[in-house]
Amino acid sequence: MSKLKNPPVPFINLSTQFEGLKKEWLTSIEKIGESGAFILGTNVSEFEKEFAAYVGTKNAVAVANGTDALILSLRALNIGDGDEVITTPYTFFASAEAINHVGAKPVFVDIEPSNFNIDPAKVELAITSKTKAIIPVHLFGCPVDMTVLQELAHTHNLSIIEDCAQACGAKLDSKRVGSFGKIATFSFYPTKIIGCYGDGGMITTSDSVLVDRLHKLRNHCAVGPFIHDGIGYNSRLDEIQAALLRIKLTGIETVIAKRQRIAHLYSDHFADCDLVTPSGVAGGTHVFNLYTIRIPNRDRVKKRLMEARIGFSVCYPQPLHLQPVYRHLQYQIGDFPESERASEQCISLPIYPDMLSEQVEIVCEVIKSVL
Ligand SMILES: Cc1ncc(COP(=O)(O)O)c(C=O)c1O
Prior knowledge:
Layout: H1 15-35, H2 42-55, E1 59-63, H3 66-76, E2 84-87, H4 94-101, E3 105-108, H5 120-123, E4 131-135, H6 147-156, E5 159-163, E6 171-172, E7 175-176, E8 183-187, E9 201-205, H7 208-217, E10 222-224, E11 227-228, H8 239-250, H9 252-269, E12 284-285, E13 291-294, H10 298-307, H11 337-345, E14 346-349, H12 357-370
Parallel strand pairs: 2-3, 2-4, 4-5, 5-8
Antiparallel strand pairs: 1-9, 6-7, 6-12, 8-9, 10-11, 13-14
The structure holds pyridoxal-5'-phosphate (PLP).
């Protein structure tokens, strides 16, 4: 147990990382200020190139956030009214919300209990003549097993939009997520693997037609000064965030290694306990944006964590098919038992690159005391 006297353990700590980046970022901000170019300048275009090279696609298009990345990707694929898009009910709301934003209908498919990701073996049954795309979400940082999904997409002429918001840097064999589908989306929300100090998002693709559409969509479908040939969005990453993300991208492998170390420490501590630690997928590299366990008596664990001033998050307490907003889709309790069970049993524990081994120990001891 820690020699420190009952220190609180926050769920996340973003300020320690900031200290290490501060000097370089502030210097970039000064240069941006002096240049007078604040939107879609060289930091954005350079970051797009660097990010595409990192993920392994030909192109990347920066946008305002991960939700817009999904909406613009769906729009670029011409998905809209009357279309269906398959996704998981066990994810952050934005994965499905984006489908509604373009006028299409989300169709849910249950998850695999071992890794919380959409179960590829169950996807085919959900495909109809209206299905246009599948959005697999690499949840918590664990890559979805893409082989079956790629085969289905090929057979049924569907697009795959990978939602990589929580999994920047994750790999399947040697390929990074974001390079498997026709198009993929990332979020740079502050808590993500690389997060900005504000909002940001990215779309990766190797399809140049999609890139042209995305460039227009993110900037009001402008085809010349004040000339517009479509209904687009104001969804641009700004130079100050792009400058920060460029710095963070150079250190991403270290950040991932630190997260993996913390995750392994947790899993070692819990080795003989009556709870389920994250297991991943064969050939996959998990980046642990979240460290999520299944635990029998979650309410008691939550109470003890709160008493001990330890942060946690329940991701996600209600699967999307049972959310009030989707009542009209007429899903019932029991339709996706694995997602429902995960919602009842899962809890995400503190994890961040600079977390101390001592802090991991404190969290584990509190949880063990309840088990
Ligand atoms: C799986 C998933 N998809 C999409 C998003 C949306 O990203 P953003 O918050 O940048 O809009 C998030 C954000 O948490 C997410 O976790």
